[in-house]
Design brief:
about 375 residues, alpha/beta, Rossmann fold, 2 domains, five-stranded parallel beta sheet, 17 helices, about 15% strand, ABC_transptr_periplasmic_BD, signal, ABC transporter substrate-binding protein
């Protein structure tokens, strides 16, 4: 038993015990993820992470420039399949990521919970858009039973609303609050560089814009577009009128190609990425870190030359573009926002240089260097 025989003991001993108690309490924090779920975690114990989608690597890169995937033990192979340029960039910088387990889709019946346990997984990061799938498949219940923490983030459905809280939450969970706050400051500044100008635009000044989602991915199929979400939301934020925001009630949807020929559309923007390895027959514009302007222009022209398309006003006026598809699920989407704004209002944004900002983003926050082509205008 400890005897408190004099007043000075209370001053010197009790603070020691209180300090220990406080630190023990502070080890566990509670965060609210983007699905509204309260999750208790100990950031110091998050050593092994599984990603529901490999492209969440874009976000982790912002939080740990030295070795962003060091704690990732498993993921879905969508980064490898659908953005191989980026994967090779990270593989060259961090060869050890070749050892990350490809676990497939977390929502299929053959997903191996046993493998997740074998990997000593501490944290599972999932996209908000797959919340229902995670619930219906029983994934959340199974992970909870074995003590694996799960958090949901969102850079895809409501990017302008959920990017900042997603980063704040991940910064706390991963013990990277300083890095998260630094990027958030930069992100907000970049978003505001467009918003402050666009707010002055009247509805009559705003162009009608149609986004063709994954344009040419399947050469004989057209067209999917975004509703008032994702890149559709960014079009609206950039001062355009996204056609899908008025016509599509959900995240995205398939539309009859005839709408492109019958509705008044001022700008057409397709999304593209290097899908040639996942789909060798693709006619998409292969944008990304290994893209070249010449090939991007050739493929964009081929899309503009599809049957009947050359007669469209947007094509005739050269308001026909391709944008890097992967901005649709990335905290870097402000680059797409700035590029859209510059396309819609070249005089207002004549001093804005989105490419320079993307180079700056790489230099300041990312462990890989800038290269390639990420958007293209029809010449």
């Amino acid at each position: 038993m400890i005897s408190l025989k004099c007043s000075f003991i209370k001053k010197c001993v009790l603070p020691v015990f209180l300090g220990v108690a406080f630190n023990a309490f502070a080890e566990v924090i509670e965060v609210t993820d983007i699905a509204g779920r309260k999750v208790s975690v100990d950031p110091d114990k998050i050593q092994n992470i599984v990603l529901g989608e490999g492209r969440l690597a874009y976000t982790l890169a912002l939080l740990d420039k030295k070795n962003p995937l060091a704690r990732v033990v498993g993921w879905k192979d969508d980064l490898i399949q659908y953005d191989p340029d980026a994967y090779r960039k990270y593989l060259n910088a961090f060869p050890e990521i070749a050892k990350i387990e490809n676990l497939g889709s977390p929502y299929t019946g053959d997903y191996s919970l046993e493998k997740i346990i074998t990997l000593n997984t501490d944290l599972f990061i999932l996209n908000l858009g797959n919340l229902l799938k995670a619930q219906e498949s029983g994934l959340l219940t199974k992970l909870d039973k074995v003590g694996i923490k799960v958090v949901f983030v969102d850079f895809r459905q409501r990017p302008t609303q959920n990017t900042v809280p997603s980063l704040l939450m991940l910064g706390k969970v991963l013990g990277r609050e300083k890095e998260a706050n630094a990027f958030i400051d930069y992100y907000v500044e970049q978003m505001r560089s467009v918003n402050s100008v666009v707010l002055t635009k009247t509805p009559e000044e705003r162009p009608m814009v149609f986004i063709e989602q994954a344009a040419g991915y399947n050469p004989d199929k057209c067209c999917n577009t975004f509703g008032a979400a994702n890149l559709g939301r960014l079009v609206d934020e950039a001062g355009g009128i996204n056609w899908g925001s008025r016509k599509i009630p959900g995240f995205s949807g398939k539309v009859n190609p005839e709408v492109i020929f019958t509705d008044k559309i001022d700008y057409i923007i397709g999304t593209g990425a290097n899908w040639s390895e996942a789909n060798p027959n693709t006619a998409a514009v292969l944008l990304g870190y290994e893209a070249t302007p010449a090939l991007a222009q050739t493929r964009l022209k081929a899309l503009a030359d599809r049957k009947g398309w050359s007669e469209l006003d947007a094509v005739k006026s050269k308001h026909f573009y391709s944008m890097y598809h992967q901005f649709y699920n990335s905290p870097y989407h402000f680059i797409a926002l700035q590029t859209f704004a510059k396309w819609f209002y070249p005089e207002d944004f004549k001093d804005l240089d989105p490419e320079a900002k993307f180079v700056e983003l790489h230099d300041k926050f990312l462990p890989i260097d800038y290269s390639g082509v990420f958007w293209q205008k029809l010449d």
